[in-house]
Write a structure and sequence with these properties.
Distance between the termini: 72 Å
Structural class: alpha+beta
Order of helices and strands: EEHHEEHHHHH
Strand content: 5-15%
Number of strands: 4
Length: 183
């Protein structure tokens, strides 16, 4: 089986001790889906975003190096800590595809996430503190609730479902503008 590079990436040497992966080291999309726990459509999407890369057989079938499993695990870990797929791609772009990244290289990328993780922990702690006041309260008051409507921001912005019109739920409802007259 001959592997043809995908997306214009060179296939690398084809013979000798530094040769690229043999056909036995390559996974089909079905094998990669099974091993990674992702659907083939998700793998194709990851590939379209540049998160993973495939070579193609002469018949056009995708083949993935086994190291792709590590890249997928990395992306899934990034998502679990709240990083977007774009952020995961930027981090992966700093790592070599072959040979597999070293422990030191993985550590440098993971360390770059530390501040993001710390911010998320702090945000969850604030949410936890606010929720403790709501447990059993039963008020469901949109005028008094410090969690969902701090300072009754929704009432100040005008009538109607103000939060449905909000671009950023964290900052409250959109201010009343000239196209949205207040009563």
């Amino acid at each position: 089986m001959t592997a043809i590079p995908d997306h214009g990436r060179p296939a690398g040497p084809t013979a000798g001790p530094t040769a690229g992966p043999s056909r036995h080291d390559l996974l089909t999309i079905g094998q990669l889906a099974h091993r990674s726990g992702l659907a083939p459509s998700a793998l194709r999407y990851y590939e379209s975003l540049g998160l993973i890369h495939a070579t193609r057989t002469a018949g056009g079938q995708r083949r993935y190096p086994r190291g792709t499993l590590r890249r997928i695990a990395f992306v899934r870990a990034a998502q679990r800590v709240g990083l977007s797929l774009d952020e995961a791609r930027v981090a992966l772009d700093r790592l070599p595809e072959r040979p597999a990244p070293s422990g030191t290289e993985w550590t440098l990328v993971a360390e770059s996430w530390q501040s993001r993780i710390d911010e998320q922990i702090a945000e969850l702690e604030r949410l936890k503190a606010k929720l403790s006041g709501c447990i059993g309260c039963g008020c469901l008051s949109l005028t008094r609730c410090a969690l969902y409507n701090a300072g009754d921001r929704a009432g100040e912005a005008g009538p109607g479902a103000r939060y449905l019109l909000t671009r950023d739920p964290a900052t409250g409802p959109e201010p009343v503008g000239p196209l949205d007259p207040a009563p």
